[in-house]
Write a structure and sequence with these properties.
Two copies of one chain form a homodimer.
Chain A lengths: L12 H5 L15 E7 L5 E7 L1 H4 L4 E6 L8 E2 L2 E2 L5 E2 L5 E7 L2 H9 L2 E6 L6 H5 L20 E5 L2 H6 L3 E9 L11 E6 L6 E5 L4 H12 L6 E5 L11 H17 L3 E4 L2 H7 L6 E9 L5 E13 L5 H10 L9 E10 L13 H19 L3 H8 L20 H11 L2 H13 L4 E13 L10 E7 L5 E5 L8 H13 L6 E3 L18 H28 L6 E4 L2 E4 L2 E7 H10 L5 E6 L6 E2 L4 E2 L5 E13 L4 E14 L4 H20 L5 E2 L2 E2 L17 E8 L15 H4 L1 H13 L10 H6 L7
Parallel strand pairs in A: 1-14, 12-13, 16-17, 20-21, 29-32
Antiparallel strand pairs in A: 1-7, 2-6, 2-8, 3-7, 4-5, 9-17, 10-15, 11-12, 11-14, 15-16, 18-28, 19-20, 19-25, 22-23, 23-24, 26-27, 28-29, 30-31
Helix pairs in contact in A: 6-7, 10-11, 10-19, 14-15, 15-16, 17-19
């Protein structure tokens, strides 16, 4: 390989380290106004009256709008642009203004008079499920989020438990977690005074989804809305709904005033309105023979969707598929569903349920091992999926490498797991306030969207006459490095230097809807589309080169910008010359590659079907030192191995792993959005703590490769798997160190010190 | 037909009539500077010294650049961004500045000191061809424009003349003509501070060609330059080289200063620098039997290329193909070539030589008829191309309708030609100062680029999930209405209302190079690419609809946004529903149509080959009244008929004909760029006269349709043919009215009054 598999610097490295990258908040347009939103102070209230007359008189104010002024839909897919008569969480907006400067906009917000009648609310999973509970949304009887229930029915769990020697039941909890991207949300909507169309620049993760919001808010055709993604300062699934709403509001005000409207959230605004990682209540019953063979698995996994839609109808499918971990279990009964509350709503966040579900399931495995008196690794070895295994959804894994054990053994070895386990166990028995522990977790994860929805996307490769190559995708570079990995794939396939490839940011008007940049599908699906496009182009260029060299196209190969005859490398022509030859003859070297999704039938009542074409495999070992007098946990060392198929760029892949480890540490030990009656108590980083550079452990990323039959150059997924085992491994290590298990995240000082599992009050 | 063949209003009508369309000069960017260029006062001089030091000190000036400061190439394809040591015409730029406002830029220009050493120059075709003449360009010995010589050799002219009963020899002349578009040239170049790339907005006719200039000026990859066409206020072939140079200069200053740079030409600047219609000296010898059968045709057609490249190496090919008009002639010898002078250079202008060549050739036909004592129509009837005829380039016309005579007879009838001819002849014999005349001309014209170069282009159709359809082309809407006709083609093919189609302006980064928007190929070639793309999309949608309706795709038809079963129209589904069904399954409804050019072999030494796949046919009848005491010619009535294959939009087609008639009138009677030693004497519309609303004749456009096998829905070309017969018909009418022939255009007062044929001194 000439370009792929090499740790080349990111194509956007220079602009980022020099501070020259343009984020949405850096954009200025002549005549630009500044938009601001007034949000509800109540988690649940009736809006009695809104009086904006004083606000409209604030100097510099160009528009003050309430729901009544919206030109078209007041909501998109339940999410409200502006609330009309009722607010259901403290992020609900009730009015918005655009003014000459941010100060005037703030002043106008203060001049808006809203009379609320506060109403009682529902604030926990338990309250939501209580018979006769107040119903948060009309369309959700019993507060169950519509379509959020996904079952798995396999074998017969009653029989399975009957044949088990050991049965344990456990409950685990995870909290609301903030994405904590470095860049708060920002957008500028620029109206076209001629036809009412709008171009929206923004820190959007999913431009096509955002376009739907904007078109709905304006009541206009999708073709008349253009979303251009700006450099993104992180998203992790977060810049979805909140950006759709923000862009929709900015667009409405832009069209209303005929001027560009910029909106930039403060960190507090971002915290209050944006979707969060869903809290989960994870209840399990698991049974095994005394030899450690798991016979039955039963789970009720309930997540909190919050006030609005929350994506649980999609996300919970993934939770059900991965609910039992990477194990072969004959009898399974799983029910996943979500409930509405008057808290902030849940949304996509790196892993899309897997970090929560794997935390529960891999904690459970350690607890089961303990109950069996068995080494936790040994228990996993006995039950892990192997080539030819059948998953809990009935999928036989006989068409791809199945590397649960290969990855696990490699990571255990690299981490010197067994020696350290023994050593720390010995130390623990000696007592003393500082105790060390080592723990592990293992997972498998379906690549791409699987049977959730059609995993289709496009890649465009356009070779210019000077041999430079424009590439465009419908998927976004959210900071994960898609622009670099896609450029590498195209450069590799065409045999040209990476510097020849020019990545152009996503613009919805120039590429077909490529779906969402989610589910770690950027390389696996998006890279495949790029490779298909590059192959189409290459075929034409090789045909042209073959004419110039008087040979057959099949004899040709290319590298470093030269196309040559494999059998006689002295017969060669430059890439540029072959390109010019083709273009002169009127051929086009612009080709769209399109990934057609495979057929993946799914039986919803039983949760049986082929969930994903391909799976990737991960194992994380964590070592911690716990101060038993304070409850402080220091993560010493994390070894993380992933079967990624192939790392298109090993440096970027390692970066994903580093980031995943740190994000997992935050989830394990610190992060929790604290709420009181729906009000977020810690809406900034002074009170919402995330790991800092001082918390960094020693990190060992291991990239394991295998011959995946689907991904481009065998590449699979990594973005989300990089974090999904981390919290479980750390909590397992804490349990090893202290002998006490924390079953509710985060494992903060109080819980580690007191050993209590505190549910949110 | 539901949408095609209907005179729907232009899609850009509203924005244009309300003044909301954004032309390049309407664009503003924060921090924008204003660029200006200093041009030579001499047609030929050596640059002894340029001192810009005082200019750099003018307040508000950000850069003052000479050739020495250019970062890369100083020229593109001979055209100079800035002259270094020698100027060769008065449009040559020697320095450029960018400043905070236009006044500061002007002041800086005045502060630049240039010392020239004036040199003698070459200013006419005759001077250029004189043995030992000063050589204008090093690479053009004998002042012959490189590669501009195109011969035709067919049969044996000596034998042909020997078998002729009547032989005449004539010389005609045409002058430099200005495009006279309503909008002078304008651009804004916006630099990307990060990677040195530039986005250029401008009144460009050919964005991909302009991109070549900009990339060359910057020394950067094509993929790093993005050209976005703004609404164009006319071009007619004019906004090519001059825009390339302007955009290149603006881009260099933008990168140099790190700020957007706007350049807008005044009308005088536009006149002085921009390319002009080539003057031609047309020398003929033609022989016929006394029955009027043309036996031999010999022509030497020399055009003036001016100081730089002038496109003559391409244009003269078209001149040679069409040199003998739409007649079958067994013996032909033609030589076309161009010469350099120190005048402004020639470039593309509506017709690309045909208005000049047809003026000469159709004047010649009338003169031959006179010499034969034969009616001019009768002479044409005897010699016109018919089905199965062989053209002078040896192409047998047996694969398409050949409608010279059909068009001619229809136009003559509509114009009541014979009655009026007789009536005016009678009136003329009665004497008196005001005399009427009627004249005609007929032509055929190859559609598209033919064997000149590969006639390839692309069209993109992208169906959105709400059923709106984005279309993009690599060809531009220059005011001719391409955005409307392409939208109609797509709406027709998909069976949806026109309002669903959203045309997006050309952006070089979003579409493959579609070649130039020239040669009346917008509909004929560009429309075909759109149709191909729409067909690809339709095939997928029909497959989806067939599933929904449980029928076979072949049974389906669509109109008005509904897809229905032809045999049972009650089985129907909306276009939108079928679209959503396809997208949900992961299909893409974004398709590129690409027109692959046909093989058209050409033997250059003999000028024999298949010149074009398809021809269109035109006939114009003009009636004039001449005041023989002043020389004033009033055009009373013009009847213009064209076999267009099919008019996609009859209103737009009629618009082309109206415009073509008026432009032809200007050429016939008024327009001439007057030069003295290379200096343009009439560089604005106070002295360069063009027809105004007061000059309008009664105009009758006739659209004749035929079954062309190539064009989309049979559509052929019209933009250029609409003007190519007009000058000849008017001058023939003047000759009929006065009995005196004007052989040098324009037929202005002096020439009509004095009957002299004045060559430019």
């Amino acid at each position: 390989m000439g370009v792929v598999s090499r740790p080349v610097p990111r194509v956007d490295a220079y602009e980022k380290v020099t501070g020259r990258a343009k984020f949405a908040a850096d954009l200025y347009f002549p005549g630009m106004l500044y938009g601001k939103v007034l949000r509800s102070p109540h988690a649940h209230a009736r809006i009695v009256k809104i009086d904006v007359s004083r606000a409209r008189e604030v100097p510099g104010v160009h528009c003050v709008l309430t729901a009544a002024d919206l030109p078209a839909a007041r909501s998109w897919f339940t999410y409200l642009f502006l609330a009309e008569d009722e607010v259901r969480y403290t992020g609900d907006a009730v009015a918005m203004v655009a003014a000459e400067d941010p100060d005037a906009a703030e002043e106008a917000l203060k001049a808006i008079e809203v009379v609320y009648e506060p109403l009682p609310g529902v604030f926990t999973i338990e309250e939501a499920l209580e018979p006769g509970a107040l119903q948060v949304q009309d369309y959700a009887p019993g507060n169950i989020v519509r379509n959020s229930h996904w079952p798995v029915r396999r074998g017969n769990v009653e029989e399975g438990f009957a044949r088990s020697d050991v049965i344990i039941e456990r409950e685990y909890r995870t909290p609301f977690i903030e994405h904590a991207y470095i860049e708060p949300e920002a957008t500028v909507a620029v109206p076209d005074p001629v036809d009412g169309s709008v171009t929206v620049y923004g820190s959007v993760q999913n431009p096509y989804m955002t376009r739907r919001y904007v078109a709905a808010a304006l009541g206009t055709a999708l073709g008349k809305v253009r979303i251009i993604q700006q450099t993104l300062g992180g998203s992790f699934g977060g810049k979805e709904e909140v950006m759709g709403l923000m862009c929709g509001r900015a667009a409405v005000m832009a069209v209303k005033t005929g001027r560009p409207v910029k909106m930039v959230n403060t960190r507090e605004e971002s915290f209050v309105e944006s979707a969060k990682r869903h809290p989960f209540r994870l209840r399990y019953k698991i049974g095994a023979t005394r030899e450690g063979r798991i016979m039955a698995f039963e789970a009720e996994l309930v997540d909190e969707g919050g006030a609005y839609n929350s994506q649980a109808q999609f996300m919970n499918w993934r939770a059900c598929v991965h609910s039992a971990g990477c194990y072969e279990i004959p009898n399974v009964k799983v029910d996943v569903y979500a409930v509405h509350t008057n808290n902030v709503y849940g949304g996509a966040m790196r892993g899309y349920s897997s970090p929560q579900v794997i935390f529960g399931q891999e904690s459970l495995m350690d607890e089961l091992a303990e109950a069996l008196g068995m080494d936790p690794v040994e228990l996993r070895r006995k039950n892990a999926l192997r080539f030819g295994s059948v998953t809990i959804t009935g999928q036989k894994l006989d068409d791809q490498p199945v590397n649960v054990l290969a990855v696990m053994e490699r990571v255990l070895e690299e981490a010197d797991y067994f020696n350290r386990r023994e050593e720390y166990t010995r130390q623990r028995e000696k007592g003393g306030p500082r105790r060390r522990g080592i723990g592990m977790a293992v997972s498998y994860r379906g690549c791409g969207l699987g049977a959730e929805t059609a995993d289709a996307t496009g890649g465009l490769v356009s070779v210019q006459e000077d041999g430079s190559v424009i590439i465009r995708s419908g998927l976004t570079d959210n900071g994960q490095g898609l622009s670099t990995s896609h450029a590498q794939i195209v450069a590799e396939e065409l045999g040209i230097p990476l510097s020849k490839v020019v990545y152009q940011r996503v613009d919805t008007s120039t590429m077909p809807d490529g779906g969402m940049t989610v589910a770690s599908r950027g390389t696996y699906t998006g890279g495949r589309a790029m490779l298909l496009a590059a192959r189409k182009v290459k075929e034409i260029i090789f045909r042209g080169a073959a004419e110039l060299l008087s040979c057959r196209p099949e004899e040709l190969a290319s590298s470093d910008g030269l196309i040559f005859c494999s059998s006689d490398p002295s017969k060669k022509v430059s890439f540029e010359e072959a390109v010019r030859h083709c273009l002169f003859r009127g051929e086009t070297l612009t080709q769209l590659g399109w990934v057609v999704p495979p057929e993946l039938p799914w039986d919803r009542p039983t949760g049986q079907g082929k969930a994903f074409p391909t799976y990737m495999y991960s194992c994380v070992v964590a070592e911690v030192e716990v101060d038993t007098e304070t409850g402080q946990v220091e993560v010493l060392r994390v070894t993380a191995g992933h079967d990624v198929g192939r790392a298109i760029n090993p440096a970027l892949a390692a970066g994903q792993i580093y980031g995943g480890i740190v994000m997992g540490m935050g989830m394990a030990l610190m992060e929790e959005v604290e709420l009181h009656k729906g009000v977020i108590l810690n809406p900034n980083f002074d009170s919402y703590t995330i790991p800092t550079s001082l918390d960094m452990p020693e990190m060992k990323p291991l990239l394991l490769e295998s011959e995946d039959p689907v991904g481009p150059f065998h590449a699979k997924s990594l973005g989300e798997p990089a974090m999904e085992c981390v919290a479980a491994a750390i909590v397992n290590a804490v349990a090893h160190a202290t002998g006490r298990r924390v079953r509710s995240l985060p494992a903060n000082l109080e819980k580690v010190l007191l050993g209590k599992t505190l549910a949110r009050s």
